[in-house]
Amino acid sequence: MSESNIESILQEKRLFPPTAAFSQNAQIKSLEEYQQLCDRANSDPQKFWAELAEQELHWFQKWDTVLDWQPPFAKWFVGGKTNISYNCLDRHLTTWRKNKAALIWEGEPGDSRTLTYAQLHLEVCQFANVLKQLGVVKGDRVGIYMPMIPEAAIAMLACARIGAAHSVVFGGFSAEALRDRLIDVEAKVVITADGGWRKGAIVPLKEQVDKALANNVVPTVTSVLVVQRTKQSVEMQPERDFWWHELQKTVSADCPAEPMDSEDMLFVLYTSGSTGKPKGVVHTTGGYNLYTHITTKWIFDLQDTDVYWCTADVGWITGHSYIVYGPLSNGATTLMYEGAPRASNPGCMWDVIEKYGVTVFYTAPTAIRAFIKMGEQLPNARNLSSLRLLGTVGEPINPEAWIWYQRVVGGGRCPIVDTWWQTETGGIMITPLPGAIATKPGSATRPFPGIMADVVDLEGNPVGDNEGGYLVIRHPWPGMMRTVYGDDERFRRTYWEHLPPTNGQYVYFAGDGARRDEDGYFWVMGRVDDVLNVSGHRLGTMEVESALVSHPAVAEAAVVSKPDEIKGEEIVAFITLEGTYSPSDKLSKELKQHVVKEIGAIARPGVIRFTDALPKTRSGKIMRRLLRNLASGQEITGDTSTLEDRGVLDKLRGEG
Ligand code: WT7
C-alpha cells in the first residue's frame, strides 16, 4: 500500500451508518440482529449452519453429520445429497420465478439476451445431455475457456447438473497457461468459443485451445465444444471438435439433476501462490452452495425486484460465486456483461446500469480508480437512480476511491459493501451487512456471522487493537476450500501450518496483513507473501520469474511490484542477462511480450530493469525487500547487513 494511501486512511475518519430507509427493508435490519446472528453462530456453529442449510437449500436427502473436522480437512453436511444446479434452477420453476429473468446478458457490440429461469433450465438440461453424449460422467473434469456469454454460465451449471467438476480458465490466460491447467486437472472435454469481443477486437479463444492441445500434450482431452459467438472462421478438427449449437439440437431437453454427495467436487479453480505453479483450489457441493447462497442474500441484500450486476469475469472466483451460483440459488436476476470501458465507449458501464435499471452493482477498486480518471461527467450523463447498493472486492480500496464511488455512482444514498475474501474461502468473509453495519471508508468492517476472524503475530498470538498482524480464520466454515487438487500436503502446508496452532487448534492463514481497530473493524492491508495484486488479479512473483527465465536472454529474474495509481500494483522485473545479450529497449519489449505469451496480458511487466547482479544474502537469497524499495523509488529501509555485496545496491541505485 502506498504512503499516500496510508495517510488518507489515517485522515478519513467518517462513519457512514445505514439509513433508516435502507435498514427497514433490509434482510438484516440492525446491528442487534447482526450481533444475535454472530452470538448464535459462535455458541453453536454447527447448529447455526445446519439450520440455514435446512431453510435455504433443497436436499434430496438430509445429512447425518453437520461437520466432520479432521484438521485441516473439513467435510460439511456429510451424508446429505443435493445438487447446486437444482438449487439454482429447478426449485424456482415451481414458483412465480419460472418466468422471471434469471440471466440478463449484454454483449460488447450491443447485442443482448435475456433468459428466464425456465429458459435457462432448458438450455442447461440440453447442454448437460450434450456432455453426456460426449461421454462425460460424474466425477470427470471439464475445462471451460470462454468469453463472458451466457453459455459460460450454462456450461458450469450443466457440469454441476451431471456431477462433472468444471475448471474455468480465464479467457485472458495464454495457451500455455491453459495447457498447464488442463494437464493438472486432467480434463476430458474443453468448452470454448470461436472468439469473444474485448475492446473492439476478437479474442481468438478457439485458436488458443488448439495451441494448448497441440501435439497431444493433454492426452485426457477427447472433445472440444465450440460456441459460435463471433462467427469468425476457426479450424474444426474432425472427431474432436463440435459446434455447441449443432449438438444442442440433437439432444433431449430432459435431464434430471444428479443427486450429489455434499462433499462431491463441484469445481477446481486455479490461483497463484507465493511458490510453485498455480494451485487448483477445490470446492465441493453442499457447503459451497450454502455459503455462496447466504452471503449473497445478506450482503447484497437481495430483494425480488433487484437487478444485480457483478462486473467480474466468470474465470475468477468472484464470477463463480457472485455472478452464477449465489445469485441464481437465490432466484435473483443476475446481469452479465461481455464488454469493458474502451475508447469507443468509455461510459459503457453507466449505459448498462441505465438500460437495465441495475439496483446492486459490485465491482473492483481498480475499476473505480479508472472511472475516476475518465471523469465524473460520464456517470453524471446517465440516470443511475436505480442503484441502491454498491460493492467492492479484490484489493484494499483507498478512501478517496470509496468516497468518489459513494458520491458519484451512489448519489450519496447507497451503502457500500467492501468485501474481503479469496478464491480459497469460496465466499465473502469480512464485510458490512448493509442494513446493519456502519461503514468506514477503507475498512471491510466485520466478519460475516459464523466467521471467526482474528489478527495474530508470527507465534499465532492475537495482537492488540490497531496493531498490525496476520489475518487468520479460526473455525472451519462451509464455503472453505477442501484441498489443493491432487496435493493434500500443499494444502496443509500453505494454509494451516504456516502459523503454529492456538491451544492445539489449527488456524487458517490467509496470506494478508491486517489490523483490527477499537470498534472491532478489520483493515486489510494487502498480501504479506510473494503474491502480487495487479488490477485485482492475483499473480505469484515466482510464476512471472519462471516465465522470464524461460527466455534465452535471461539468466536471472527477480519480480517485485511498485504502487500504481490505477492498477494498485505494477510489476517491476529486475533482470540479469546471459553473457552474449546486452540491454536494449527492443529486448525489454520482447521480454514483456514473452511474459504475455507464457501467462497472459494480466502479467505483463510494467518495467524491466537490467542489472549486472541482484542483491542477495550470503546464502544466496534474493533480497526482494530492497528491490521493492528501489522499484518504488523509496529509500532503502531496514537492515542491509546480510547483503553479500553492497556494491550491487549502489549500482542499482545509481541507475535510479
Ligand atoms: C486476495 C484474494 C475473492 C475476491 C477476488 C480476489 C485481496 C480481496 C479484498 C478487500 C482488501 C482484498 C486480498 C486477498 N482482497 N478482496 N475487500 N480488501 N484486500 O480473489 O484472486 O483469490 O485474491 O485479494 O489480498 O488475499 P483472489
Could you tell me the radius of gyration in angstroms?
24 Å
Adjacency order of strands in the biggest sheet: 5-4-17-16-18-19-20
Percent of sequence in beta strands: 15-25%
Beta strands, count? 30
* End-to-end distance: 21 Å
- Rough outline: globular
Biggest sheet character: 7 strands, mixed
Backbone structural class:
alpha/beta
Which molecules are bound in this entry? Answer: 5'-O-[(S)-butoxy(hydroxy)phosphoryl]adenosine
Q: What share of the residues lie within helices?
A: 25-40%
Mind sketching the topology for me?
Layout: H1 3-11, H2 20-25, H3 31-43, H4 45-56, E1 65-70, E2 73-78, E3 81-82, H5 84-93, E4 101-106, E5 112-116, H6 117-133, E6 141-144, H7 150-162, E7 165-168, H8 175-185, E8 189-193, E9 196-198, E10 201-203, H9 205-213, E11 223-227, E12 241-243, H10 244-248, E13 260-261, E14 265-271, E15 279-284, H11 285-299, E16 307-310, H12 317-329, E17 333-337, H13 348-356, E18 360-363, H14 365-374, H15 377-380, E19 389-392, H16 399-409, E20 416-418, E21 453-456, E22 469-473, E23 483-484, H17 488-496, E24 508-516, E25 522-527, E26 531-534, E27 537-540, H18 541-549, E28 554-564, E29 568-577, H19 585-598, E30 607-610, H20 624-631, H21 646-655
Parallel strand pairs: 4-17, 6-7, 6-8, 8-11, 11-12, 16-17, 16-18, 18-19, 19-20, 29-30
Antiparallel strand pairs: 1-2, 3-13, 4-5, 9-10, 14-15, 15-23, 21-22, 22-24, 24-25, 26-27, 28-29
The structure holds 5'-O-[(S)-butoxy(hydroxy)phosphoryl]adenosine (WT7).
